[in-house]
Each structure stands twice: as structure tokens, then as C-alpha cells.
Design a protein that fits this description.
4-stranded antiparallel sheet; 1 helix; 8 strands; Ub_ligase/GEF_domain; Regulator of chromosome condensation 1/beta-lactamase-inhibitor protein II; repeat
Length: 112
């Protein structure tokens, strides 16, 4: 993943200090398999192949320039027997606006 200084949305605070506007590798998520990035006014979200989202930039109360995984605090769907299904929510697409982020999520059961 690469970015240019003025379009970083807080991806790497060290890059913002630079006056050189050339693409540079973002080191914060070098170990992750990033498949999509969306940039908002003051933040960015990186989506991994396994459906996790990492938030960067100025998002209160987090520290700017430090990635944090976005928790998906949605209740699991109910299975046919009335109990909660086993699995987890996975993001499929992400989009950032000026001060908000939206994601399309899908339930991935432990059985698949």
C-alpha cells in the first residue's frame, strides 16, 4: 500500500512531516493482506482479505497515526433453532466520507 502526503488521511504521521510529494510505502500494515483502502477527510480505512478493517487518522479518541482494528459490534444472526450462529462478521467493501465510514458486511459461519 502506498500513499502521497496530502492524501494520506493520517495513514503515517511520519510521512506528513515530509515536503516531498511522491508515493511512499506505508509501513503500518506491511504484514496485512490489504485489498481495499478508502480515504475520508481526516481518516482512512484499510480492508484486509479476511474481512477485517483497520482505521487510521484522526478519529477520537484514538491517537492519530496509529492503526487500530475496527470492532464489528453487531449481534450475530439467529440460526433456525433460535440460538446465535457461530462465526463472525466480515467486511466486504468499505467507504469513507468526511467524518464517517460505512461498510458492507457479511456473516461468515464457522461451518464454511
Amino acid at each position: 500500500m502506498v500513499g502521497v502526503e496530502e492524501n494520506m488521511g493520517g495513514l503515517d504521521s511520519e510521512m506528513i512531516k515530509s515536503s516531498i510529494m511522491v508515493p511512499q510505502r506505508v509501513q503500518l500494515l506491511v504484514e496485512e493482506d490489504i485489498i481495499q483502502v478508502s480515504c475520508g477527510g481526516t481518516h482512512s480505512v484499510a480492508l484486509t482479505r479476511d474481512g477485517r478493517m483497520f482505521l487510521h487518522g484522526f478519529v477520537w479518541p484514538r491517537r492519530p497515526g496509529h492503526p487500530s482494528e475496527v470492532p464489528m459490534n453487531l449481534p450475530p444472526p439467529k440460526n433456525l433453532s433460535g440460538g446465535e450462529a457461530d462465526g463472525r462478521w466480515c467486511a466486504e467493501l468499505v467507504a469513507c466520507g468526511g467524518r464517517h465510514t460505512l461498510a458492507i458486511v457479511e456473516w461468515h459461519s464457522d461451518e464454511s
